[in-house]
Amino acid sequence: MAVHEPTPLERFLNGILPENPVYRQLLGLCPTLAVTAAMKPAMTMVGATAFVLICANLITSLIRHLLKPHLRILVFTLTIATFVTIADRTLAAFAYPMSKLLGPYVPLIIVNCMIISRCEVCSSKQGPKAALADAIGVSLGFLLALASVATVREILGNGSWFGIQLVPESFPTLILMILPPGAFLALGSLLGLATWLGQRRKARVSESEAGSA
Amino acid sequence: MSRLRNSYLGQAWLILLLAGVFGALLAAIHLELSPRIEENIRAEIMREIPGLLLGGEAVAGASITIVGDQVSIESASGESTSLTVVEQPSEAAALYRVSEGDPEGRLLGWVARGQDHGYADVIELLVGLTGDTTQITGIYVLNQKETPALGDGIVRSDFRQHFAGIATDSPLTVGRNAEEAAQSPYSIQALTGATVSSRSVCNIVNDTVALVKTEIAEPLEGFDGRP
Amino acid sequence: MELFADLLLIAIGAALVNNFVLTYFVGLCPFLGVSRRLDTAFGMGCAVTFVISVAALLSWTMTEFVLRPGAPLPNWVWSSLNPAAEAGQVDLSVLSYIVYIFVIASSVQLVEMYVRKFFPPLYKSFGVFLPLITTNCAILFACLEIMKHVVARDWGLAESLTLAIFGGVGFTIAIVLMAGIREELELCEVPESLRGAAITMIVAGILALAFMGFSGIGANVEKLLNP
User: Fold this and answer.
1) B167: helix, coil or strand?
2) Quick check: B40 contacting A, CB < 8 Å?
3) Per-residue DSSP letters for B40-68?
4) Nearest-CA residue of chain C relative to A197?
5) Which of A182, B42, B44, C85 is surrounded by the most beta carbons within 10 Å?
6) Considering the entire predicted model, what is its pTM?
7) What is the mean pLDDT of each run of 10 residues along chain C (227 residues)?
8) What domain range includes position B7?
């Protein structure tokens, strides 16, 4: 019996919520915490990561029949490192202040386990269509995760969102939230909230099943 | 045939091929983008030089364009000034000689880069000095990671403007409050709750000023110290 | 003495003030994954410190001699191929990320083989963690910091190694503290939805808050060393 391979659409949808890289798989935590003090750097980070993920997924999917099993990690790493360099240089050339703000976290995309795990799980086994759908889905999931953390931190810590002042300047803000401890606290609380919502939904589903039976 | 397949080349041809392709891609990116990146890094400093030497009012609302060594400032009232910035050989992180108009113009002042430990991490500053190095014309914070809302006040202009116009014949000190700072013309009022950051900035300014003075007194080869 | 002061400041900065995990968020995967028990956490910390030192040594060598702008090796090759070329023009820094990740992967391999061959008991205690370390961002982060300073020409080998070793020590301190807290946490009644990663994050946040108390040490140690 052939193993069921997820279709491109399933891959796409799975990446967003059911297999959300940050909330469900706990991958890519380093950027989730480091660049989420405000929305702008967080979204730049998502853009750079999505670019690398899409390119790496496409390339590994195109050459998947040529891969030798024991050399595949090497090929993945080489591909990812190349595209990260391209993303880093492009940012430095066209968005220099942002590139300075993100600093080492752009090159650190290389060791973002999220990307290498997508290469391993999906694109080295399936065709370019599924790989592309998967990369976009996972990127959207990553976007959702970073946006949620950055929203909480920027609004509480700075009183603004995407640089737009929401609460009056004189209003006291919780500076702790834009400091490193705030990142841990925000992500910890959001993880708890995600689990709580998941459990509540599961409970409701099993309740309604019990009811219908 | 099977020998070829089992040899190193048979195993690694894909990686070598990919390395070649990616190498070419990176070379193209590098050739295309590195002039732009260097320009960005230079422009970051060049853009601050007029404000440092001419004062904040002179550049308020002005548009600044940078072409090569030349910085042109067109003020809001339509007056235009142009400066030439030339980096000098120096022991400091960087030392720029700034003259009015073209490189042969009158020496307007010096801008030097200095850095040292702050409260959280290294603080990097630009310090502007008059041509005869007797007065500080202004400072600008290039890099810092001080505590938000406390130490990072060193980047605000109301803190930085304390430095403008202070004579350099005695090192700067830090006063914890307005009264303490008023006792001496060389005293800078510390930011509330961030004495360490304020003191670090003063120390960097002192060290940088001293270094610029030595550089001018004992110039390195190729140093342009014309008045 | 001045070098010693510099090294001490870098060491304190890397281990405590700007702790790799709690300030820069690098090395989080093992920090969350392998901090369930004290002894394994300590093993992981040692393995990371070990690998980070080897990788820093290798990457410093590569940066200094091959990758930085104006590095001797590529310039020598280029000028012997093309005698007309101007000296010091070759810049391979675009390749640095690729080189670092391979340096890290190969130093992990090297360390694993070496330890397995010569120190079997050591291999038993932390060998299992070694392959996991390749994707530990703390190591790449250390390489990148070293690159930044080597390109700016203000760090030599001693400074680079100090950063790497004490960065590893800082990681060990953080992960051991975390494991100690989590062992106690087993006995507590944690709300169901916070169990696992969420409560670990919140504990890490409190730990980071405690580590913020170390900031400011740098400036004061400096004052102590050069009164």
Assistant:
1) strand
2) yes
3) HHHHHHHTTHHHHHH-HHHHTT-EEEEET
4) C193
5) A182
6) 0.88
7) 84 90 89 85 87 92 89 86 74 90 88 84 73 80 91 87 95 94 90 88 94 81 74
8) 2-217
